[in-house]
Amino acid sequence: MEAVVLVGGQGTRLQPLTIRTPKPMLPFAGAPFLTHQITRLRAAGVEHIVLATSYRAEVFAEHFGNGKELGIRIDYVTETEPLGTGGGIRNVARRLESGPADAVLIVNGDVLSGHDIGAQLELHRRREAAATLHLVEVPDARPFGCVPTDSHNRVTGFFEKSPEPVTNRINAGCYVFARHVIDEIPEGRVVSVERETFPGLLEDKQMVLGYVDNAYWLDVGTPRAFVKGSSDVVRGVVDSPVLSGSVGESLIDPDASVHPNAVITGGSVIGPRSVVESGATVHSTVVADGAHIGSGAVIGFSLIGRRAVIGRKAMLNDVVIGEGAKIGENNELANGIRIWTDAVIPDAAIRFSPLP
Ligand code: GTP
Known about the structure:
Elements: E1 2-6, E2 27-28, E3 31-32, H1 33-43, E4 48-53, H2 58-64, E5 73-78, H3 84-91, E6 103-108, E7 111-113, H4 117-126, E8 131-137, E9 145-146, E10 159-160, E11 169-178, H5 179-183, H6 193-203, E12 208-212, E13 217-219, H7 223-235, E14 250-252, E15 257-258, E16 263-265, E17 268-270, E18 275-276, E19 281-283, E20 286-287, E21 292-293, E22 298-300, E23 303-304, E24 309-310, E25 315-317, E26 320-321, E27 326-327, E28 332-333, E29 338-339, E30 344-345
Helix pairs in contact: 3-6
The chain binds guanosine-5'-triphosphate (GTP).
């Protein structure tokens, strides 16, 4: 079984953390996000993965190599110019080994999902579909691609980000394609699988199925979602083979140094070579490698970049701190603020208080 993982996006919503590191390689519940996806695919029977890379392509190969350490074969195909989701899938076709009718899994590289991949594949094979999409039901479908289906699970339309969604079923970013569908995507140009490939399949009267599965699902493309997803994996709300059952309130790397008085809760991660000083509180936060959290600092629902330094008694809530940034003592930052890579905020320079 083969899978293509789309990992070529720029991850602008997670800037500045994605300036040097592509989104799927950001630390997440003790490993790069992509490691969780790869191990889940392996558990579903995938033996060969092709990563469709573009932005910061070299970072993936440097980390995963040929995949041997994860017990899977990994190949890379890099777009010199980003070709979009459909173009990226077409571009990897030459590395696929499946026959024309074989099922190939396609996964967006920023989706955390607990759905039953085996059941999705089974539906696809049993009905001999051209494509079978994982669909989830969400309370507010406006920001997503809506995918209505009929009573036989056949997809009847695709509606991208509509103000009045026709259904609450959305495209969850994991597809099974018959191999020949990949070969039929136009080559060498930008193609959106959502806007062009799927509607084209419907026009051609090919069988496109929706596999509805409402297990845990999260698009981790925003800072808030990224932190939530990582914390959920650490706390065991959703399983990942990377943690294999050892879940709890925090995940502290053996090479981190955390003072016994510090309180680490809410599924927080403390990365390798990080230091957390006495009296600091870290809740539902990802602290990347080599960061330093000063004594008495209080941090919640935030992403702290590599080698960032957070001063004594700083209060951070719902923020992103770029790699190498230095936050002076007694600052208060909140409400989705982003501090850029290597920026320096002097002591007591920022007080967050809501406008009267
Ligand atoms: P934002 O810039 O924050 O929207 O993130 P993104 O660049 O990752 O875009 P988006 O979330 O829409 O992408 C969905 C998935 O497709 C992600 O896994 C991306 O890595 C991937 N992707 C998006 N565009 C391309 C592309 O041009 N080529 C390839 N190979 N993958 C892409």
